[in-house]
Amino acid sequence: MTDYQISFVQWTLTGVILAVATIPVYYLVLRFMSPPEVHTIRGGAGYFSDAKKALGPMNPGEKNVLFVLVVMIVLWFLPAVVTISFLDIWFVPPVAMVLLFLLPVDARKGEMTLGTKDIQEGVLWNILLLVVSGTAIASGLASLGITNWIGSMISAGASAAVLPWLAGLVTPILSHLTSGTATTLMVSTILFPIANDLGYNAAILARII
Q: Is 79 helix (H, G, I), strand (E, B) or coil?
């Protein structure tokens, strides 16, 4: 919609900045306004040490998952270092899933890290359908021109300085009514064109949404 791409590094950096700014504040609030009643737990260190020993060494499945996680992180951050035309962040999750289906846990038995049973029982299909249906609703509203109609009413009396505040207010309200994906699509479909018309960087709104 805006011909502006946000890299995975930029998106991650936003979270890092927020974490660095807020974690010290959270600590001070909890430390001085809600001090802990218990300062030490007797035998706590021993409990965690015993629990770690009970886990034992990593099994082949855990090693495969760790390997795939490292591959995903590398592929997400690689475009920030090297320009690769065919590499897109949206390709990384499917690549990881295929790797988990191909990497064996027990090659002799033909047992892979992921199997069809994991797809049937491990996927929260109700949540997946909720997200897809919310996305369909957002696309339908855009196709019917409703989002453009709402956007025209907002742009008539809005300035560029109001847009981030509007995004920060509307997004959490809608997220209580629809899925996060649907909320993102609806709010961005309305506000991004307005931002372009007002000469405001839509990437700032994308970070808020």
A: helix
Give buried/exposed letters for 35-68 (b at 16+ CB in 10 A, else e).
eeeeeeeeeeeeeeeeeeeeeeeeeebeebbeeb
pLDDT tens digits, residue range 36-80? 787 788 888 889 899 989 988 999 999 999 999 999 999 988 887
Q: How many CB atoms lie within 10 A of CB 152?
A: 13
Phi, psi of 39 (to 5 degrees): -90, -30
pTM above 0.90, yes or no: no
- Dihedral (Cα; 48, 51, 56, 57), 10-degree rounding: -40
Strand partners, 9: none
Pick from 146, 164, 155: nearest CA to 204: 164
- Which stretches of the chain drop beneath a pLDDT of 50? none
pLDDT of residue 136: 77
Residue 201 in tokens: 């960087």
Around Cβ 190, how many Cβ atoms within 10 Å?
24
Q: Among the residues of the chain, which ranges form H helices?
A: 8-33, 44-55, 60-77, 92-102, 116-122, 125-143, 146-157, 163-175, 180-198, 202-208
pLDDT at 157: 66
For residue 84, give the nearest of 155, 7, 4 by alpha carbon: 7
**Whole-angstrom Cα distance, residue 43 to residue 40?**
9
